[in-house]
Write a structure and sequence with these properties.
about 80 residues; alpha+beta; Metal Transport, Frataxin, Chain A; 3-stranded antiparallel β-sheet; 3 strands; about 40% helix
Length: about 80
């Protein structure tokens, strides 16, 4: 199984320990790039898909690196709506 397929299966199970770095890797494999926002954006992050012009906005988790369950559900719904999973 490829890295992309492994991350898709892991993400679909909505694990409680999916990290932000895993999300960034996976979104990159799906074709998203991180948009650099203004200097004072802090933990707000945005990812842009060039083919569909879809934007995903979220807060980077802190102080840890693990995404919250509500973030996972929102991301799952967004990506399913865009037919990416």
């Amino acid at each position: 199984m490829s890295k992309k397929e492994t991350l898709i299966q892991r993400f679909k199970s909505l694990p409680r320990d999916f990290t932000y770095s895993q999300l960034v890797t996976w979104l990159g494999l799906l074709g998203y790039i991180e948009i650099k926002t203004v200097k004072s954006a802090g933990s707000r992050k945005a990812f842009f898909h060039s083919k569909t012009s879809h934007i995903i906005r979220l807060h980077r988790p802190h102080p840890g690196n693990v995404l919250k369950s509500y973030q996972m559900k929102q991301l799952f719904d967004e990506l399913k709506k865009e037919d990416l999973i």
